[in-house]
Model the fold of this input.
Amino acid sequence: MARVLVAYASLTGNTEEMAELIVEGIRQAGGEAVLKSVTECNAIEIKSYEGVLLGAYTWGDGELPDEALDFYEEMDELDLTAMKSAVFGSGDTGYAIYCGAVDVIEERLKERGAVILQDSLKIEYGPNAAEKEACRQFGRQFIEACMAVT
Done:
């Protein structure tokens, strides 16, 4: 069974809700998920898992939120070669760069050698009923891909 870290940054609860739903999907598909806020863990913890899902809301004009900066910077010290990963987050289409923090995190994962198993999941504000199921499906697909990739 694959063990996955789901770490997120959330201010209003939208990205936290996404993370919780993604964890539901992982568990529905038979995976093991550990859910943590990025303020409750260090990036080095990624190395203790077979996969990692990172989530954040986007602040301002496509930037990482302040509470995610330490975690993000700690990733600079990690060799994540072959680490199975994906990224999710919430944003606001009213800004020029929609869910820019998601793209920033994904780029950092790639720079550190991680393998992105699926397209990022981006949701405006909080998930509606259909998007809640999309979050669960995102988790199911991730864990299935984790178990398929050796």
